Automatic annotation (TrEMBL):
Residues bound to Mg(2+): 231
Keywords: Allosteric enzyme, ATP-binding, Cytoplasm, Glycolysis, Kinase, Magnesium, Metal-binding, Nucleotide-binding, Transferase
InterPro entries registered for this protein in UniProt: ATP_PFK, PFKA, Phosphofructokinase_dom, PKF_sf, PyroP-dep_PFK_TP0108
Gene Ontology CC: one annotated term: cytoplasm
Keyword Mitochondrion in record: no
Site (Important for substrate specificity): 232
Species annotation: Eleusine coracana subsp. coracana
Name of the protein: ATP-dependent 6-phosphofructokinase
Amino acid sequence: MGSLEAATVLVAPAPVVTTPPAQHKVFELKASYAPAAKSVPASKPKPAKKKLAGGCGGYVLEDVPHLTDYLPELKSYPNPLQDHPAYSVVKQYFVNPDDTVSKKIVVHKSSARGTHFRRAGPRQRVYFQPGEVRAAIVTCGGLCPGLNTVIRELVCGLHDMYGVTSVVGIEGGYRGFYARNTVDLTPRSVNDIHKRGGTVLGTSRGGQDTAKIVDSVHDRGINQVYVIGGDGTQKGAASIADEVQRRGLKCAVVGVPKTIDNDIAVIDKSFGFDTAVEEAQRAINAAHVEAESAENGVGVVKLMGRNSGFIAMYATLASRDVDCCLIPESPFFMEGKGGLLEFVEKRLRDNGHMVIVVAEGAGQDLIAKSMHFADTHDASGNKLLLDVGLWLSHKIKEHFKRKPGFPITLKYIDPTYMIRAVPSNASDNVYCTLLAHSALHGAMAGYTGFTVAPVNGRHAYIPFYRITEKQNKVVITDRMWARVLCSTNQPCFLSHEDVERAGQEEEEPHLPNIEGENSLVLKSPPL
Ligand SMILES: Nc1ncnc2c1ncn2[C@@H]1O[C@H](COP(=O)(O)OP(=O)(O)OP(=O)(O)O)[C@@H](O)[C@H]1O
Ligand SMILES: O=P(O)(O)OC[C@H]1O[C@](O)(CO)[C@@H](O)[C@@H]1O
Ligand SMILES: [Mg+2]
């Protein structure tokens, strides 16, 4: 257990005035903060105000909070990395404070410069001394390849780059903050955990009680919290960050986005996704071998993807053995002209076998129509899904039973948990390492209330609200989905209205208008 004083450094007058962390003009941050409070009765923390900076050409920096926003007297120190033998030789190792990463990478002559995020990386000045840091790491939500790599690299990165020796793991997800003891994490104890699937800390759904979590953070003297999880977890982290600010604690709250479904908005890709797609190939290969070896063989493979069909889409494109890919974003129908059953029949007549890949969230409306079921949710409030693979297999079998002289052999493969329980592959391991490093550089530099991830290939600090306001979905009016349809030669199943609706959902939200600052974007002619 750490000392209470360590977590309550806070608003004591500091001898050195800090260098401002950002050069940009900041708007809208008007909150005044009370000095540090200890246990405060449970109350819903107000979300932090958006921190926006504007410039000409429709430039908007959607910035992340900094500890000095509410602890203006906080002391800063030279970054110890400048004396590190490995890093001191790197030219321009520290990130220029004005560097930003553009959300939009494809632009036109008259495009506004649009939304930017603060570039991730080490800063010249840090707001924690090595001996002062007590970091905590927690993993929440479903499993995902790479969780252990992120944990390892946070522990080793903090130790090797910043000399931090106090890192604890919170066991069993958010509720572990107040229901379990912590475990000490050292470079030695995490040395080879990246070779294992799962999370050495354990995980859970539900149990997110912000007030109790922040009480625990305060009581244990924790001043950096690293939260690894999906969209639900990032929402939880946002409310922890808000409560930490409200209490005036010197504690950075940092999110590392995790989800096998790749459904986190704004970011290029979530870690573990590549590994999952690779692992899915084994199931698709098996389905293909089985289907090819039987008379009118049909292989059905169900892959994860609650609301977003990225795993199914990429696994299909990678395999080239798939005849039909079904995802939640693209409605389909079974019976009649242009329906799935007609297509299965045609493909079997033409090729003698076929493989169908279905994302678990696809066709849920069809199943619900055809059977009674209780609409249930998991502990985090996520809707529990019906088994579309089983349902589809049953429907196909029933259809061909009614066709004497057309026997089929159908094999249903459900590798759902196998694709997420494996250790991360080489490229995900490197990705997880960079994510962990970007996360801890941000916390050491005093940033808080952010998720770290690559945006157009560059790591950026993204305010929590940007990650949580909507989910990333396959855009069925985009070229990538067209590539899938082209590779499988499946029908698109969509009505004109479906396509219209999909196009409207994809419209970009308007840029924030900062009076007198980014007016160009408002005056620029529509494209
Ligand atoms: N809106 C929310 N506000 C605060 N906490 C939340 C919210 N939604 C979910 N959480 C908490 O976040 C944790 C993880 O959420 P969830 O089970 O939805 O997984 P996730 O992080 O979305 O990951 P994945 O979907 O990839 O499994 C849970 O402890 C849950 O209670
Ligand atoms: O059965 P569990 O562990 O709740 O997780 C299942 C869900 O988790 C996910 O893998 C997301 O993490 C979804 O694809 C899936 O629906
Ligand atoms: Mg989720």
